[in-house]
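#struct-pred
JK: can someone run the complex with zinc ion? inputs below
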Amino acid sequence: MFKIEILGGVGEYGRNCFYIENQGKAILLDCGVMKNSQKTPPAITLNHVEKLKAVFISHSHIDHVGALPLLEEMGYKGPVLMSHKTSQQLQHPISHIRTFHPDSRGTWIKVNDYLAFQWGYSGHLIGSVWYKIRFFEKVIFFSGDYVRDSYLLKASLPVEDGTIYDVAFIDSGHIEKNIDNHEVLRKLETYVNEHPNNAFIFPSSFSGKTVDIVTYLAQRTSRAICIDTKLQSLFKQYEEEPENIWPHRMTLQVGHKECTGDGHTLYFVREQDEARLEELAKEHPTAIFIETGYSRPSFNQHVSMQPSQEFFYKTHPDYQDTISLSQSIHARQTIYFHSPHTHLETTIQKEEVNNG
Ligand SMILES: [Zn+2]
Ligand SMILES: [Zn+2]
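RT: done, structure tokens with the ligand placed:
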């Protein structure tokens, strides 16, 4: 019997975890927790773990890997598959990791007699991937977190070979929006250039978005750019895996560890580092905060008084991207995840785009 159970991540933003059972054996697609203070885990039970033969991990964000330690505690000892780069980004050590390298992309990789997969880049974070999985006679597509138009990171899809997927899991994280990332970058460049006498503060995440924005601006402004040391490791990874990057979009060398900014500098600070954000706000009262995603409510008063401007940059598919993904992946059943705006019953009319 073929059975799918959503353990988290559909109809909500976080704890992505999808359980698929076939002929008494099972696989898991991602194993994340909610990004709340309780770190709410997915609804995994011992019954699930007993049948589990492999776990496929799309990338290193906690809403995709945060419950792997729980899975181990529950006794899972099978392989945990992920890209080599993803394994380097994990914050907690995990046993039984099985990694794959850039040169294997697009080829079938065998896990055991009834399980094999292909992978490709998904454009969301360096090393983030999609999977095409053959599980007995069933074929499954899992987009992972997907960005179609990252400035630097490649995003591909499986080679079109007539495959009809039995089920496709498609990221719909920004389905309520319509955004062209390249246009956002152009507008941001203009805005920065129109304010030569202000510093800029970018609360930044550990994601492809941050490297896209830094690189794009660095190539177009002579102003100083200061990047948090904790974000700098991300830049180093781009040098290590050029296969993941669109050709001719060279990344910059972030070698300078200390950065002495001034009143015109562009500061990239980890969004969780409220102390540093506040310090910079005090230092540069006319600095403009740039919000590139959903702004967090927990900002303290000093920071929230500061002038700010939104340049929303996608880290997930928007409405058009979600439709075009679901059109490209021919599937009997499509499950949209990573959004409170989609749920298990969501269907998207495949003709919608053609009709206007
Ligand atoms: Zn992510
Ligand atoms: Zn995610």
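RT: quick notes.
The chain has ten helices and 17 strands.
Residues 351-356 have pLDDT under 50 and may be disordered.
JK: thanks, will look after standup
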